[in-house]
TrEMBL record, chain A:
<dbReference type="GO" id="GO:0006511">
    <property type="term" value="P:ubiquitin-dependent protein catabolic process"/>
</dbReference>
<dbReference type="GO" id="GO:0019773">
    <property type="term" value="C:proteasome core complex, alpha-subunit complex"/>
</dbReference>
<protein>
    <recommendedName>
        <fullName>Proteasome subunit alpha type</fullName>
    </recommendedName>
</protein>
<dbReference type="Pfam" id="PF00227">
    <property type="entry name" value="Proteasome"/>
</dbReference>
<comment type="function">
    <text>The proteasome is a multicatalytic proteinase complex which is characterized by its ability to cleave peptides with Arg, Phe, Tyr, Leu, and Glu adjacent to the leaving group at neutral or slightly basic pH. The proteasome has an ATP-dependent proteolytic activity.</text>
</comment>
<comment type="similarity">
    <text>Belongs to the peptidase T1A family.</text>
</comment>
<dbReference type="InterPro" id="IPR029055">
    <property type="entry name" value="Ntn_hydrolases_N"/>
</dbReference>
<feature type="domain" description="Proteasome alpha-type subunits">
    <location>
        <begin position="8"/>
        <end position="30"/>
    </location>
</feature>
<dbReference type="GO" id="GO:0005634">
    <property type="term" value="C:nucleus"/>
</dbReference>
Automatic annotation (TrEMBL), chain B:
<comment type="similarity">
    <text>Belongs to the peptidase T1B family.</text>
</comment>
<dbReference type="GO" id="GO:0005634">
    <property type="term" value="C:nucleus"/>
</dbReference>
<protein>
    <recommendedName>
        <fullName>Proteasome subunit beta</fullName>
    </recommendedName>
</protein>
<dbReference type="InterPro" id="IPR029055">
    <property type="entry name" value="Ntn_hydrolases_N"/>
</dbReference>
<comment type="function">
    <text>Non-catalytic component of the proteasome.</text>
</comment>
<keyword id="KW-0539">Nucleus</keyword>
<dbReference type="InterPro" id="IPR016050">
    <property type="entry name" value="Proteasome_bsu_CS"/>
</dbReference>
<dbReference type="InterPro" id="IPR001353">
    <property type="entry name" value="Proteasome_sua/b"/>
</dbReference>
<keyword id="KW-0647">Proteasome</keyword>
Amino acid sequence: MTSIGTGYDLSASTYSPDGRIFQVEYANKAVENSGTAIGLKVKDGIVLAVEKLVHSKLLVPEANRRIQTIDRHVGLATAGLLADGRHLSNRARDEAANYRETYNSPAPLKDVADRLGLYVQAYTLYSSVRPFGISTILGAVDQDGPALYVVEPSGVFFGYNGAAVGKGRQLAKTELEKLKLSELSMRDAVLEAARIIYLVHDDAKEKDFELEISWIGPDSGNLHVHVPKDLFDEAEAKAKAALETFE
Amino acid sequence: MDHFPTNWGRPRNDAFDAYGTYPIHQRPQNGPKDAFVDGVQRTQQPIVTGTSVLAIKFKDGIMMAADTLASYGSLARFKDVQRLFPVGDNTVIGAGGDMSDFQHIQTLLDGLTIDEFTAQDGHTLGPAEIHEYLAQVMYARRSKMNPLWNALLVGGVKDGKKFLAFVDLLGTTYSASTLATGYGAHIAQPLLRKAVEGYENVLTEEQALKIIETNMKYQVAIITEEGVRISESKTLDTHWSFAEGIRGYGAQAQ
């Protein structure tokens, strides 16, 4: 970014001479500083996992969750500014509820992602606002089966089979590419997700972290819920064991 | 005296009371009128209606039953309408009265349960909360002179506590170990009271089902600690042979 400091990075409503919007790129930087979040679209469901960095031992365990529920069948994991994430999840809830009100049926994930994308993009247009420092992974099992989308700070959204955002996304993506996602069972996907989060966590740089895993599929009655405790404990134990053999 | 010279020599506008000579409530209204005010109508009668819902307490929970008929006046218009609706894992509501209003209530409750679900705070709504919510909605609507034309039974079990209560289009609420709406409130209620009162913690599921079956043709919802079960539509054996001898029943041989 050679043109930094030239005044083109002060407002989201100003292009730089080479056609970039620096405020949006800075928003992406905010995402890159956040703990990793991943999403897996497998045979019959979705698994979301987050590396929640805990900045103080005084925090209540399981508080400030970064995986949130949007509708019965829709889950959302964020990477970036925590407060922005909560604002976006509230908006997503409103959109999902509005879809239900209008069409009297659960919203397809594509429509939620589309509406959320439009909302995020509107925050890249004006000098009076700041773009969201958030990349959102949306997961759902809807009418057409499992679906997974990522909405970026610019407002673009893409569908994925496996998604990773945040600090450790590069390593997480290479790990996701090794998996045969379309053949994976939900249970195995939970184990893999835990393993990947533990793998990408950088012990040297970061303090403590808390693992968060949720799923949507037949195993959860097609509801978006955090995985049951016994499965979570198993996944965490196996992830720690795998880490030792890896190193 | 009109002190505005521009008005002098012009025909007087009697509709405009420049000096406020009338008491306020008699003053002619010259402001813009709501063109549709006469066109607005509120619900004054139910259209497609369901009638009886019966509910009793038994040892393990609540049993609720309703027939599946929705009538259009005296016409048996829809014969397979479900009038029992589960809300969450611990509650069932049963409705008599206007079926479209009941469908609206179902939509309201669906939104409410989603809001609670997405909070993911470890709390769920039980029958007592659902009943309170409905009572508030029903009373607010009747206070707007626009009621939801229903009589509702709310039954459920949560944290080992049985709950059974009533709310209607006026926002009236009450609770008892046997409840009924519509025609059932006249015919079945006394029989239910006799069979159930005092035995709420003794009656088994089978016995409770027997009591319900002697009173109804229907669908049954059984709510226990384990959750909600709603049966398929069933028909009862009815015996009308005795009616053959009654004048006015069937073909008249005179």
